[in-house]
Amino acid sequence: MIRNLGFNAELEKQNALENERRRISMEMHDDIGAHLTRITLISETAKHKTEKENSLEQIAQTSRKVVTSMSEIIWSLNPDNKTGEQWMSYLRDQLHKLLEPSGINYHISLPE
Questions:
Q1: What does the alpha-carbon distance between residue 19 and residue 61 come to, in Å, rounded to a whole number?
Q2: Which residues, including other chains, have CB under 8 Å from residue 45's CB and lie 6 or more apart?
C-alpha cells in the first residue's frame, strides 16, 4: 500500500508538471506568436509605403517585446531562479526597466 501511495504522488507530480508545460507552451504561442504576426504584418505593409520610418519603429518596438517575453519565460523556467534573493533581484530589475524611462526619481526598498 505504501508503494502505491508513492506511485500516485509521483504520478500527480508528473501530471502537474505536464500541465504547467502545456500552460507555458500556450502562453508562449499566444504572446510570442501575436508579436511575430504583428511584425510580419507591419513588414508587409511597409513594403508598399513610401514613408517607412514609422513602420520600422513599430517593428523594432515589437521585436523588443518578443525579446523581453522570451527572456522572462526563460528566466521563469530556470530551476536555479527560485530563491527569494533571485526573485527580489529580478523584481528590482523589472521595476527599474519600467520606471527609468519615466524620469521619476524612485527608490526600491525590498526586504533582504
A1: 32
A2: 55
> Could you write out the DSSP letters of every residue in 43-82?
HHHHTT-S--HHHHHHHHHHHHHHHHHHHHHHHHH-TT--
Angle value at C-alpha 35, between 31 and 36, nearest 5 degrees = 115
Q: What angle do CA 109, 111, 112 make, to 5 degrees?
A: 115
Cell readout for 76 is 521563469
pTM for the whole thing? 0.54
How far is residue 6's CA from residue 27's CA, in Å, rounded to a whole number? 32
pLDDT over threshold 70, residue 31: yes
Tell me how far apart the alpha carbons of residues 105 and 98 are, in angstroms, rounded to a whole number: 12
Kindly report, residue by residue over 9-21, the tens digit of the pLDDT: 888 888 888 888 7
- The pLDDT assigned to 100 comes to 81
C-beta of residue 55 within 8 angstroms of C-beta of residue 45: yes
Alpha carbon distance 111, 71 (integer Å):
25
